[in-house]
Design brief:
374 residues; Aspartate Aminotransferase, domain 1; three-stranded antiparallel sheet; 14 strands; 14% strand; binds pyridoxal-5'-phosphate
Length: 374
């Protein structure tokens, strides 16, 4: 049986190996060298003013929350509004800093619903974390407006959004922090790594320091010669920075990101065409107006989700679900049933196979299995 998987990372193997070989021959695999080159290229690609390469988006999200908390003087127990329909690391990053996650519901794009976000704002709200689910920008612009109206910080979890454009530009210039993931199954796969893009140069500097155990690299770079060990430590930091081997892979993959995403949109278009006749039985999640989606995911809403998943597995098709409503997890039990749309959607959505080795024939096979079953 021809198996069709949800994701399959595709690497330009020879080019990646060339980059890795350069690191090995130079004897430089760690922080610096390729990590700096990748940061420079990412700034150029996105137009964002700063970029710091880290070992995962989870680390980047934690740093974003930590730095904004410190800079703005937030207290433990202050509130951050977030989505329940996300990978758990979005919300873990808020808990790491002893802040309260307040869940707002999602809209038809599976992204934060601005109307519900506004209702959840209290005098302890400090920030909103927006996840562009599947590469969709949803109602991001309205979230930007709300944050500016209420004086809230904005963090864009762009783990799915590498390459997404909104009205022709990379979104994120309005956010305090934008965090990308280059984990193995994301649109720009390395093995594990991510990028944090902070708007404020001071925060970018602080972030670089904290991602390497608080080591002040300015002092470090000044004390050349015999005094390389003579750096100052003023903050408790983390081991969160990226390395040159991962960056070497990232630099190659970045060259192909737009081309790869264009193919992903083609796959999405084939699915759309197949489901155009499906009526109410199969409802693809719409892409927001003005959004050129990275198409990390192609999500449909169906009536008998569990039976559908079982059927697809039986015929060798392995879709996914993004995500289980986070308020169903024990750690968020106190927020259970606060987001009805998310609760309902979480039990009716399926992410269909979408990767660069899929053919139009594969898409038609998946779609016809779904329509025959509906
Ligand atoms: C994958 C993902 C993350 C975490 O990315 P890592 O690089 O694996 O830490 C965060 N948020 C969302 C929405 C994700 O899908």
């Amino acid at each position: 049986m021809n198996r069709i998987q949800l994701f399959k990372p595709v690497y330009r193997v020879e080019e990646c190996l060339d980059g890795i070989r350069e690191c090995l021959q130079k004897g430089w695999t760690g922080l610096g060298y390729k990590t700096i080159e990748f940061e420079e290229q990412w700034k150029q690609y996105t137009g964002l003013p700063h970029a710091h390469y880290v070992n995962s988006a989870t680390s980047g999200l934690h740093l974003a929350i930590k730095i904004l908390k410190e800079k703005n003087g937030w207290n433990d127990g202050d509130e951050v509004i977030s989505t329940p329909l996300t990978f758990i690391s979005t919300n873990h990053s808020i808990l790491y800093e002893h802040l309260n996650v307040v869940f707002a519901d999602v809209d038809q794009y599976l992204c934060l619903d601005p109307g519900d976000v506004e209702k959840k704002i209290t005098d302890r709200t400090r920030a909103v974390v927006f996840v562009g689910l599947g590469g969709n920008t949803g109602q991001y612009k309205r979230i930007v407006e709300l944050c500016s109206k209420y004086g809230l910080s904005l963090i864009l979890d762009a783990a799915h959004m590498a390459g997404t454009r909104l009205d022709g530009a990379i979104p994120g210039h309005e956010a305090d922090a934008v965090v990308y993931s280059f984990q193995a199954v994301k649109n720009l796969p390395t093995a594990d790594s991510g990028m944090i893009c902070l708007r404020d140069p001071e925060l970018d500097f602080l972030c670089r320091k904290l991602s390497w155990l608080g080591i002040d690299k300015d002092t470090y770079s000044r004390s050349q010669g015999n005094y390389k060990w003579m750096y100052e430590i003023k903050d408790v930091g983390y081991k969160y920075h990226g390395n040159s081997i991962m960056a070497a892979i990232g630099l190659v993959q970045l060259k192909y990101l737009d081309e790869d995403n264009a193919y992903r949109r083609k796959i999405a278009g084939w699915y759309d065409a197949c489901f155009a006749q499906a009526g109410d039985k199969v409802k693809p999640v719409p892409v927001a107006d003005g959004c050129l989606s990275s198409r990390h995911l192609y999500v449909i809403e169906v009536e008998h989700r569990e039976e559908m998943l079982e059927h697809l597995n039986r015929v060798g098709i392995y879709p996914g679900v993004h995500y289980r409503d986070n308020t169903e997890y024990d750690i968020f039990a106190a927020s259970a049933n606060t987001c009805p749309n998310s609760g309902r959607l979480s039990h009716s959505i399926i992410s269909l196979p979408l990767h660069l080795e899929m053919t139009q024939q594969d898409v038609e096979t998946v779609a016809s299995e779904i329509m025959n079953f509906s």
